[in-house]
Amino acid sequence: MIKQNSRDVLVVGVALFAMFFGAGNLIFPPYMGLLAGVDWQWALLGFLITGIGMPLLGIMAAARAGGTIEHMGSRVSPWFGLALSIVIILAIGPLLAIPRTCATAFELGVRPSWEGFPRFLFSIIFFGIALLFSLNRTAVVDKIAKFLTPLLLITLTWIILKGIFSPMGSITGSELEGPTGRGFREGYQTMDALASLVFAQIVIGALLLKGYKNVKEQVMMTSMAGGIAALGLGLVYGGLMYLGATAGELYATSIERTDLLIAIAYELMGETGMLSLGLAVSLACLTTAIGLTATVAEYFSSLTKGWLHYRLVAVITVVFSGVFATVGVTTIVNVAVPLLVMVYPVAIALIILTLIGGPFADRAVYTGAVIGALLTSVPEALTIVGLPLDNLDTLIGYIPLSGQGFAWLIPTAAGVAAGFLVRTFRRE
User: Fold this and answer.
1) Is-contact 159 261, C-beta < 8 A?
2) Contacts from 107-111 at CB under 8 Å and sequence distance 24+?
3) Which of 23, 34, 312, 337 has the smallest set of CB atoms within 10 Å of its CB?
């Protein structure tokens, strides 16, 4: 039995690693390392919390809550659970993640070797293939993905080891204030903590098939498997951030994220390394786009009980994503910032409260935490999009840790405390 459990932990751990090992995420650690310089370890700490830690906790929390985003959000109210679910599905779908897969594939896989190729034409080809496979839903994509993950991992390991043993340059000074907080916020861009609330259903389904029907068993197995996934992701992200830090003497911080990754690959491994990385990332982005398109289509088809047909949602998703993808990775990343700044603190609060459970498992506590998180995250998001909130921004600036990017932390804790008091007085 112990041997079987160990085998199942390994299988689920590798699967978790593959799910979170998104090709689009690889552009963020090198750029963070470039910005952080000598403080890259502190930036890495923040990045790992939101890029690895919270996603793994998210799967455990979703398993404990019942397996879906709605289950977790419904601890505030049913309508909030539904609204949160829709926002997250759209964020990891056509609003942000799916267009970014295409833009990343173009900038890493096509532009370096075929500079004059039209971006819009690549978008049509990319999403034409994605639509074809998402409509047919064959096992071919799963087989390709299983082959691509090891290929991409081998390519990255090759580049990282070369960068460690033959550094591009010495690590220079930092341009960042509060590198841990900046790394924490940059980790939002992976969107893995949000995606984990969707992936949870897949993981729980796999555990059920293996005979783990008890929620405690599922959480325990997910925790152990998560350790395997976290180790692999931490090594990849840490290696890439170190490479970015060693590139400080070669590249300005104004460089595009995708250009930096390509430049590092070329500097360390020449044209062969650059092309190998670009090809592996592009194909991995395509399989990710196919999987996410299918996820979005299945979700809205199920939500509307078939009123919105799977095929219709898939077509709408790829058309919208194809148009948005033509603006480029940097624009998509910039558009993502306000939404992620608003949603992430709420998701983190719900994940932590769900895992703590006990006396905190009360609607008043969950509601207080969400309100506290939104009190600062909404103004921050509105400020990012350019709305004038000077007085409110000044007030938020007085909150401890706001300068490090954690303005939401104390209001969220205050909301939890207020909710706990309401719970206490209500029971007396």
Assistant:
1) no
2) 107/256, 107/258, 107/259, 107/262, 107/328, 107/329, 108/27, 108/258, 108/261, 108/262, 108/277, 108/278, 108/281, 108/282, 109/278, 109/279, 109/281, 109/282, 109/285, 110/278, 110/282
3) 312
Cα 276 from Cα 278, distance rounded (Å):
5
CA distance 42 to 26: 18
Q: pLDDT: is 67 or 119 the higher one?
A: 119
Residue 99 makes CB contacts below 8 A (sequence gap 6+) with 321, 322, 324, 325, 327, 332
CB 197 within 8 A of CB 86: no
**Class of domain 2-336 (CATH, top level):** mainly alpha
**pTM for this model (two decimals):** 0.85
402 DSSP assignment: G
pLDDT in tens, 233-287: 899 999 999 999 999 888 888 898 889 999 998 898 888 888 888 888 888 888 8
Question: pLDDT digits over 65-79, tens only?
Answer: 776 778 788 888 889
Nearest Cα to 58, choosing from 46, 43, 74, 69?
A: 69
Predicted confidence at residue 406, as pLDDT, reads 81
Residue 26: CA atoms inside 13 Å, Cβ hemisphere, count? 35
pLDDT of residue 276: 83
CATH 1.20.1740.10 domain range(s) in the chain: 2-336
Angle made by CA atoms 87, 340, 88, in degrees to the nearest 5: 20
CB 46 within 8 A of CB 177: no
Here the tokens at position 150 are 């090891």
Q: What is the DSSP letter of 109?
A: I
Return the percentage of the chain with pLDDT > 70, whole number: 94
Point out the least confidently predicted range of 78-87, 113-122, 142-151, 418-427.
Answer: 142-151
Please state whether 113 falls in left (phi above 0), alpha (psi between -120 and 50) or beta.
Answer: alpha
Amino acid 26: pLDDT = 87
